[in-house]
């Protein structure tokens, strides 16, 4: 059995082989889901560093964007060309306007403060200018905003920090 490790900026890519007593599997027996392990803190408190989660596989180009989804995707430009899987939350979908911050320091989605119950209380936001998400792309952010290299960190690149929706390879199934 194997466990897929998620790679995030500045985190080495690891694929760990596990014996029969291993803690995860590439093709989990639970309805064909894939099991991933995230070595970083970027998605805390939703996914803890070293924690595992299952993701429903998505065929390339078949992901139908939904705000709030936690997705596994490959974005080679973000991983030095390696194309390693990453995990982030979909904050904005095509046509949305996203910016930060509201007067109470929250992300603005289409001009309104975004309710984000998945963030730890007191999570600080880093200001960023408005981005209109292009067709076929997503704006993604980690839940641990201080420790996540996400769309905000890549605004100077093609797509202005957005990720192609066709890069999504799985949608996390969280309890």
From TrEMBL:
CDD domains: S26_SPase_I (cd06530)
UniProt superkingdom: Bacteria
Subcellular compartments: Cell membrane; Membrane
EC number: 3.4.21.89
Catalytic activity: Cleavage of hydrophobic, N-terminal signal or leader sequences from secreted and periplasmic proteins
Record keywords, A-Z: Hydrolase, Protease, Signal
Record-linked Gene3D superfamilies: Umud Fragment, subunit A
Its membrane topology: Single-pass type II membrane protein
Record has DNA damage as a keyword: no
Limits of the Peptidase S26 domain: 33-173
Protease keyword on record: yes
One Pfam family per UniProt: Peptidase_S26
An annotated Gene Ontology molecular function: signal peptidase activity
PANTHER family reported for this sequence: CHLOROPLAST PROCESSING PEPTIDASE, SIGNAL PEPTIDASE I
Assigned protein family: Belongs to the peptidase S26 family.
Protein name, per record: Signal peptidase I
Species for this entry: Actinomadura violacea
Source species taxonomy: Bacteria, Bacillati, Actinomycetota, Actinomycetes, Streptosporangiales
